[in-house]
Amino acid sequence: MIQFLIGTDVPFMRYRRFAYMFSSAIALATVVWLFVHGGPRYNVDFTGGTMLQIRLSQVLPADQVRQTLDQAGFHGFELQQMAGDNRNEYLIRIQSETQQDLFTTVQRSVQAHYPNVTVSLRSNQHVGPKVGSELRQKALWAILGSLGAILMYVGLRYQFKYAFGAVVALLHDVFVTLGFICFTGREVSLTVIAALLTIAGYSINDTIVVFDRIRERSKALRKEKHSRVMDIAVNETLSRTVITAFTVFLSSLALFVWGGEVLRDFSFAMLVGVVFGTYSSVYVASGLALDVWIGLDRRKGIQAE
């Protein structure tokens, strides 16, 4: 098997408090953003409304299409032009509670300004506000339920000091990814929720691999300092961690570049989640496990570092 970073001796735990400050700063920025903007931007899946995907016979700048819809009386809509070979296709999201034929209105308004342009319908999806509210609640419970199940699993398989660090790292990864979704002006959709759950599963898998090695080394190196045991364990799993994260990152990057608009938000969330999931396995999960370990020993009157 190909291996890299063999024989490294990086003192990861020495810098864990800097990592805490870095993660806290991102989390605080996310909280402030959510407070100022009244929460994340939800997709039509959650807010209710209509999402049209139309195709024009020729490519028009998005600003011209937007101006045409403004003059036709549409308000509060979002328009997004596809990239690449599909630049003549547009996504129109309208938060409308009515189920009238919006496509006909869009078609007439575009052809009134551009008579030589034909407009065809690619898809027409409508979500009622009640359904959107129910989807928001189910998505929230799905995330909280998965985190709770992971807490129980890690708590049964490992000691409390490991379970606490693992769950905090999971919350960190999901919340930071949500923060970057918000910072970049992206919407929270069902595909983003799927990405957040995927990130939680990836992150806990990476964390457990590190924790397994920490538990093995803590038994074999009883005379070593706790921080030293952690550093040895993390360095021994560093090759596996980097290779796994890099392959997942490349797959997500390929989806982001060539996967089209439908998978763009999902792949973006995966890119952010893989990077911070790998980082949190070392600094957040292992770092907090170390601090809890030291704290428990001090309560017993044992000098620990």
Q: How is this structure best described in words?
A:
It contains ten helices and four strands. It has helices at about 15-35, 45, 60-70, 100-115, 130-155, 160-185, 190-220, 225-235, 240-260, 265-300, and strands spanning about 50-55, 75-80, 90-95, 120-125. A four-stranded antiparallel beta sheet has the order 2-3-1-4. Strand 2 and strand 3 (about 90-95) form a beta hairpin. Helix 5 (about 130-155) runs antiparallel to helix 6 and helix 7 runs parallel beside helix 10. The longest helix is centred in the C-terminal third of the chain and has 36 residues, at about 265-300. About 30% of the residues are buried.
Number of domains: 2
Which architecture of the largest domain does the CATH hierarchy give at level 2? Answer: Up-down Bundle
Structural category is: alpha+beta
What amount of the residues lies in strands?
Answer: 5-15%
| Straight-line distance between termini | 35 Å
The CATH class of the largest domain, by name, is Mainly Alpha
Spans where pLDDT lies below 50 across 5 or more residues: none
CA-based shape: elongated
- The CATH superfamily of the largest domain turns out to be Multidrug efflux transporter AcrB transmembrane domain
Number of strands: 4
Overall average pLDDT: 83
- The SSE string, one letter per element, is HHEHEEHEHHHHHH
